[in-house]
Amino acid sequence: MKEYKKFDLNKIKIHARELRKEMTDSEKILWKELRGRKMDGHKFLRQHPILHNGNLVRYNYFIADFYCAAKKAIIELDGPIHKDKKEYDEYRDSILKDMNMNILRIKNEELSDIKYVIEKIKTFLNLIH
Questions:
Q1: Residue 63: phi, psi to the nearest 5?
Q2: pLDDT, tens digit (0-9, with 9 covering 90-100), for 72-121
Q3: How far is CA 5 from CA 51, 57, 60, 94, in A?
Q4: 75 by DSSP, 3-state: which?
Q5: N or C: which end of the chain has fewer CB within 10 A?
Q6: How far apart are CA 125 and CA 89, in angstroms?
Q7: How many Å from the N-terminal Cα to the C-terminal Cα in the chain?
Q8: Residue 79, number of CB atoms within 10 A of its CB
Q9: How far apart are CA 50 and CA 109, in angstroms?
């Protein structure tokens, strides 16, 4: 019988921590608007791991760009790399929606009008019950 190592949750934490250290310019712009409960008092976390379909041997996980636990809201910034990852993004969104997550995708280009993006996020959050 094959022996399995018990899953090490620290690996996921380390991965998320590395992503927080290496935020893109777009992520930095949006984080400035979300951090410190600036978005109508909602607390957001950046580069937050979300586990799914796990067991003691293996966890599957996604790392959300920004996550608000109170609203089960995920905000994803889509840069140029996402043009080639549409199928994966759809797959990922499908699993997250099955977990009752609410997902808002924002294109990096939209950040040039930050007031529009802020209103878009506020509207998105207000529609979640």
A1: -115, 115
A2: 999 999 887 767 788 888 888 999 999 999 999 999 999 999 999 999 99
A3: 18, 7, 15, 29
A4: strand
A5: N
A6: 21
A7: 48
A8: 13
A9: 26
Q: Give pLDDT, residue 55.
A: 59
In a domain, 2, yes or no: no
User: What is the CATH number for 93?
Assistant: 3.40.960.10
Residue 122 belongs to a domain: yes
Do 106 and 118 meet the contact criterion of CB atoms below 8 Å apart? no
Print the domain residue range for 80: 9-127
Identify the three-state secondary structure at position 67: strand
Listed residue (5, 112, 6, 20) closest to 67, CA to CA: 20
